[in-house]
Amino acid sequence: MKKVLEAICDLFFPLPEEDGGRWLLQEPFCGRCAQPFHALDSSPESCPNCHGTACHFDHARAMYLSRGSVRDMIHQFKYERAFWLRRRLVPAITDGYRRFYDGWGHHAIVYVPLFSKRERWREFNQSEVLAEGLGLATGLPVLKALRRSRETTVQAKLDRVARRSNVRGAFDLTDTAQVVGKKLILIDDVLTTGSTAGECARLLKKGGAAQVDVLVVARG
Ligand SMILES: [Zn+2]
């Protein structure tokens, strides 16, 4: 059965590189949040997503844009419990790390937690699966530093302002000692406005983290 699923995975979800690199995130994009935009410079001040907003992470990077086969794959992974798609998504997050953050001296990996009820339904946390895969590939420890303290509406259904208030206060830091002075990689599957990653980064920084750099599979 497993072999059959893997064969289906290879057939229907070729890695985007095999698909001509069609959905790779390409410059120019914002130096902070990786939003693609055309301007004379790529500073956050010029970025339509960052301009005028407080941002708590230091950088965010994505391997791909959330389009076409990449978006479909992430959607199936999360909403149709297609755990077998980790075969495609773990290499994608690892490639993203090597492409953007190799040699930056990060100490550990953290990930965006799911509320327990949603994780029970899905049977896994997609961000944790990606973080564990990246940990195995890089040798960096994966810290269970964050916990979701209340249920939130799915961010994809909300506009920019509602996304921010939806996640405000939705997370707790489980153990401050783990993050003090650390340079962290924060893993999620997709980054759109950056509200969820920003709220996690705010807590990690409040707990003493020295740097929080976000890495996702795809930029929404
Ligand atoms: Zn930006």
Keywords:
binds zinc ion, two-stranded antiparallel sheet, globular, alpha/beta, 35% helix, 6 strands, 4-stranded parallel beta sheet, Rossmann fold, 220 residues
Q: What class, by secondary structure content?
A: alpha/beta
> What value does the Rg take, in angstroms?
17 Å
Shape: globular
Mean pLDDT: 91
Low-confidence segments, given as residue ranges, are: none
Strand order of the largest sheet: 1-6-5-2
> What small-molecule ligands were found?
zinc ion
CATH topology: Rossmann fold
Number of E-state strands? 6
Count of alpha and pi helical runs: 7
Report helical residue fraction: 25-40%
Integer tally of domains: 1
Order of helices and strands: HEHHEHHEHEEHE
Summarize the biggest pleated sheet: 4 strands, parallel
Strand proportion, as a percent range, falls in 15-25%
N- to C-terminal distance: 33 Å
CATH class identity: Alpha Beta
The CATH architecture assignment turns out to be 3-Layer(aba) Sandwich
